[in-house]
Amino acid sequence: MKRLIGAIRFLTILPLRWEGAPPGQSALFFPLVGAVLGWVGAHWYGFLSAWLGASLAALLIVAAWIWITGGLHEDGLADVADAFGQRSRDRMMAVLKDSRIGSFGAAALILAILIRWQALVRMPALPVAELVAAMTMSRAALVAMAWVSRPVGQGLGAQFAASLTTIPALLVIAQGTGAAFLMDYRGAIMLLAVSAAVFFALNRWFDARLGGINGDCLGATCLITETVLLVMLSCRNCFW
């Protein structure tokens, strides 16, 4: 129970009063938290779209996800995008520690919101399987990135990566893989292949430029994976 509470407290802003386990131990339940976010979002999208139309309903769901997660992953994406334009590792680390958002970070946030919004508009009327798969797999990607990468710095992300052990990480990867098969077999293979490609590209980039990962890298991994998967799921005819 402490691991579940820890996962909820780490990934959302829900005001739980109970004490949770550290993030490394709570990682086992990260995909479950993502699945619940996707399931709730799908049902609210179906409800709101009947009253407000698909476009406004989709925008409200994306806004609700940002609010309930405290903008955790958006913050990571913005910092990584700002660091992307820096030439030296030291300068990149300084930008990652800076709480201010630059032009690259602002552009990345706007694009991430717009892409997810428009992808959701193109979803079925009640996209439960699609959203559960995307949200589960993206949280699993976050944990997998923490597991295979070297932590840098002394922040929460580095502590999380350092405390994550093999068994929970493998179980999380299994959960993310299983979530892909909420789609048909061909769709599951496509989702897994693309998410793996995104994962390895980000991992190589983080390793080459930073020598490892911090919390911002993990947040960016989660949001980029989520966005790419939502785009794929919004246009099945384009991919499978």
Sheet with the most strands, sense and barrel status: none
Q: List low-pLDDT spans.
A: none
Which radius of gyration do the C-alpha atoms yield?
17 Å
Q: Give the helix proportion (percent range).
A: over 70%
Order of helices and strands: HHHHHHHHHHHHH
Tally of DSSP helical segments? 13
Pairing-aware structural class of the strands and helices? mainly alpha
| Average pLDDT figure | 92
Question: Which of globular, elongated, flat, extended, rod-shaped describes the shape?
Answer: globular
How many strand units? Answer: 0
Strand percentage lies at under 5%
Overall number of domains: 1
Measured between the Cα atoms of the first and last residue, the distance is 39 Å
Folded structure, characterized:
The protein has 240 residues and is mainly α. The protein has one domain. Helix content is 78%, strand content 0%. The longest helix has 26 residues, at 185-210. The chain is globular and about 50 Å long. The chain starts with a helix and ends with a helix. The model has no long low-confidence stretch (mean pLDDT 92).
